[in-house]
Amino acid sequence: MTRRSVLSSGVRAGSLLLALAIVLAAALTPAIARAAPQESAPAAVTASGGCVAYHYVRPDENLTRISRIYGVSVWHIAQVNGIRNPSLIYVGQVLCIPSTYHPPAPPPPAFCGQYYTVQLGDTLSSIARRCGTTVRALVYLNGIPNPNYIRAGQVLRIY
User: Fold this and answer.
1) Between the chain's N and C termini, which has fewer beta carbons within 10 Å?
2) What is the C-alpha separation between 73 and 87, in angstroms, rounded?
């Protein structure tokens, strides 16, 4: 047997061994993955009630700053997202903000009283939105022939 045939048979045997290892690893990996306990963020999120918001980490942000924005503890954000070290987050990371955060409710409409004096730059739609009524109601109550034309200083009845 020549040296060349020994080397080529060794290469073939090595290739077969490598192929066998890859096939075995592929066959065994799903079973191992199913057997391992799942510590991913989705399981924690489900247990905590879910995400009410998602935050994309920007440069110069840390969990302390993010927790202040949403009024949620650093520990809770870290737990829900599976973060073991709260000091290690990275730019572009998407964080689930847990259910203890409640987005601010829209402010209630400002009460304008029974009458409102039109200010420079006001429109009927902005007045209606601010006073909690509709443009149609303002037009009807004030006998406005053209809803696109009101003037500063004009007094409108709101209700």
Assistant:
1) N
2) 14
